Amino acid sequence: MKKILLTGSDGQVGQDLQQTLIPMGEVIATNRQQLDLTSSENIRQVIQEIKPDIIVNSAAYTAVDKAESEPELAFAINGIAPAIIAEEAQKIGAFLVHISTDYVFDGTKNTPYLETDTTHPLGVYGQSKLAGEQGIEKNGDRYVILRTAWVYGTQGKGNFVKTMLRLGKEKEQLGIVSDQVGSPTWSYDIANTITQILTNINLAETREIYHFTNSGVASWYDLAVAVFEEAKNLGFPLKIKEVNPIVTEEYPTPAKRPHYSVLSGKKIAKRLGYNAPYWRDSLKKMLIKFSKN
Ligand SMILES: NC(=O)c1ccc[n+]([C@@H]2O[C@H](COP(=O)([O-])OP(=O)(O)OC[C@H]3O[C@@H](n4cnc5c(N)ncnc54)[C@H](OP(=O)(O)O)[C@@H]3O)[C@@H](O)[C@H]2O)c1
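^ Those are the sequences you sent over. The predicted structure of the assembly is below.
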């Protein structure tokens, strides 16, 4: 029976991983209080004590805008901690799965980003996540870095889908950015894919980066419209009557975001023999699950 150490267990992906990893073995789920990624001593001590076979790092500093004013904290959690985890994993022969982001790219491409494309993050969050990837590549021995994007889930602190449900209850009209496109991705599908990776890939050999998102492309505007359509069908109480597309300049944020954030999922699909679910189908499943919570 494998011992799996999970970090960030209170997060969106972390909560879903606690479910999907169960058939893999004994899951030791740790939240920020039990394993604090700002403390290198804490990271080393927990890994040395538990001696897991597998480490899944789903913890991260994910506040994209706040990161612009807290670069040291973002780099400590997203940049330095993954390198330490990789070093400790290497010492005990543990396999590491780490989650990264589409924001390592600048969004100037207009075809889906491949794992081999040049990285060029636009903001502190993306820079800190890229530093984490590089730390793992330098210190790690056996690992998968899974880049994903536009994550929403039923659990965790918040996300775009939940924000839309809240705003749709309060307002009749909204303007939503339509000139940033990506692939909205349900956290449960990420957790499921990580579990499939751990089940199917030969853990002795891997040192890989993979891209995984739900399939299809949408703007934030498209996603908002889809949330309201699906939520109305499911009977969510909504006041919203009108959603208007706006451009990024009309909704200024501290962090610059890529205009084109689509990741190619071909490599992982080929490796696992598994096609990512279409984003809108997963959105519907998430909303059904959320409505029952
Ligand atoms: N969310 C997105 O749209 C998105 C997009 C692309 C990639 N990703 C990546 O996907 C992964 C999972 O993201 P998510 O959406 O599940 O994020 P999330 O819901 O924000 O969860 C992140 C978790 O990390 C924990 N954490 C923060 N600082 C920590 C620290 N110092 N020590 C230990 N834990 C700490 C948080 O704890 P608290 O609950 O106590 O705050 C939270 O539970 C991350 O690597 C993220 O970079 C996310």
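The chain has a mean pLDDT of 96. Residues 71-92 form the longest helix (22 residues).

Shout if you want it in another format.
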